[in-house]
Amino acid sequence: MEKKVVIIGGGVAGLSAGIYSRLNGFDTEIIEMHSITGGQCTAWKRKGYRFDYCLHWLVGTRKGPFNDIWKETNVLNDSVRIIDHEIHTKVFNSNGKEFIIYTNLNRWEKYLCELAPEDEAAIKKMCSDMRKSEFLSPYSDPPGLRNPFKAAASMLGMLPIMVLFMKYGKKSCKDYYGSFNFKNSDLKTFFDSMYGTRDFSALAFIMMFAWFNQKNAGYLVGGSLPMAERMTEKYLALGGKLSTRKRVKKILVENNISKGVALDDDTQVAADYVISAADGHNTLFNMLGGKYLTKKIKNAYDNWELFTPIVQVSFGINGIVPSDSPNELHMVPDCKIGRTKTTNGYSFMNYQFDPTMAPDGKSVIVMRFESPWELWNDMKPEEYENEKTKIEEDARALLLKHYPDLKDSIEVADVATPLTDVRYTGVWKGSYEGFLPSSKNLMDNIPPTLPGLKKFYMAGQWLFPGGGLPPAGQSGKWAIQYICKEEKKSFRTK
Ligand SMILES: Cc1cc2nc3c(=O)[nH]c(=O)nc-3n(C[C@H](O)[C@H](O)[C@H](O)COP(=O)(O)OP(=O)(O)OC[C@H]3O[C@@H](n4cnc5c(N)ncnc54)[C@H](O)[C@@H]3O)c2cc1C
């Protein structure tokens, strides 16, 4: 008899766990509360347009352990086209002045030096830090299961980045950029605006540029939904069971051993192992009733800053809007969209680079802005409808301010709020990537096991500050590696 693994949640972490579980011969069931898989890695269709929610960039499109995971889980295969944008974002300040973020570091360095020759030394130092962080090579195996020789070789290869870890591991972007004392006021303002007022880890920011420079963080044509569909196809083809529209309310525990799950309708599903790839807060505080918390977990959920939720207004446009940049960020901090003050600006993503998003001759432009959870938490249903209407009006006005020619071309407008994200995925406080990577927590991952609870693992974005798709995919794989170890099986990826 195969041992049974029940996985709560069919997002990227749950799908990854499901695939590796089947590859290793476990009887596997994913229980997902929504009608489709993918979790936050999703999109929705309106009048022939597809409005993508998640995928801007996927670390591991070219090489490394994340690349292995994407290949093993069918996220990447021979028919998936990857785009490495030359320009990451064009940032505009409130006077309309442009600042370009190139993905190629040499090109960006040259551009910055031309923009601010007086800061050449500082710019070169910053780009050199970014280049050095290319030595970062994420571990492919989880803590406790690493081959000591491989781990030592990997550490050796990462020596140049160790210096960066020591220097900047506990620094915020504010401190890091502040230390350069940029003389050019535009440069200073643009860097300040990119990370905003929060404590965003300098190292996380630096590493992001290294991924782009290596062309190892591309965009997959088709975007988020086809990505989740490819994973689901692989899971089902391997014989995995998928139960959708079923919500887990409790993890069943006997003598501190997890024994399965109870659903909202009170049916129970028995299991030899339970993996929760659902929202971290709900898993720990509700499904397990707050019984297995550690000091570290309590501290994280009480004190670590979260990603601010976002509002997404998607427009279906009858026409093509040419652009050389996939994303434009307008830093207009005192603008209001509905009730939200756009403290960290608002962006327009023009999907003309991905023709699968709209019928021929048409295109999709998506506006996104951060909107603090406190504005949404206690909103009454009627207020909510009015707020969505107001957001659509304000967003439309802003779109037309920047693209006046689109006046008669907007065929569809669709508003998704932080409450939409919570309704469909259960994500805590609408925090779409979990804990913000800060100067205090960047290297402080949350373990996937809980002391005192056997046969239970966690996976997903909440285990790693910074969240995102790669940790989600990797933590699903790691959970099965641990289970294989418990079962004394050698772990297989094929
Ligand atoms: C606008 C936006 C842009 C993003 N851009 C990027 C990007 O460019 N690159 C990147 O790497 N990441 C990006 N992310 C983040 C990324 O989408 C998430 O970090 C990742 O998808 C999280 O995966 P997960 O499986 O951990 O969690 P989720 O996707 O939250 O999946 C959890 C799943 O569990 C299910 N579930 C929850 N509770 C229950 C329950 N009680 N019973 C049954 N099922 C349950 C949910 O329905 C969901 O399917 C973005 C996210 C957003 C919203």
Explain how this protein is built.
By secondary structure, the chain is of the alpha+beta class. It folds into three domains: 4-55 and 223-305 and 434-486, FAD/NAD(P)-binding domain (3-Layer(bba) Sandwich); 106-218, no CATH class; 310-428. It contains 15 helices and 22 strands. The chain has helices spanning 12-23, 64-72, 105-115, 120-132, 148-157, 159-168, 173-180, 185-195, 202-213, 224-237, 280-287, 295-303, 381-402, 418-425, 469-486, and strands spanning 4-8, 27-31, 43-46, 49-52, 58-59, 82-83, 87-92, 98-102, 217-220, 241-243, 248-254, 257-263, 268-270, 273-276, 310-317, 327-330, 336-337, 340-341, 346-350, 363-370, 410-416, 456-458. The strands form six sheets. The protein has a seven-stranded mixed beta sheet. A five-stranded parallel beta sheet has the order 10-2-1-14-22, with helices on one face. A hairpin with a 2-residue loop joins strand 17 (336-337) and strand 18 (340-341). Helix 1 (12-23) runs parallel beside helix 10, helix 3 (105-115) packs antiparallel against helix 4 (120-132) and helix 4 (120-132) crosses helix 9. The longest helix is centred in the C-terminal third of the chain and has 22 residues, at 381-402. The mean pLDDT is 95. Residues 8-14, 31-34, 39-41, 53-58, 247-248, 277-279, 282, 310, 425-427, 432-433, 460-461, 467-470, 472 line the site of flavin-adenine dinucleotide (FAD).
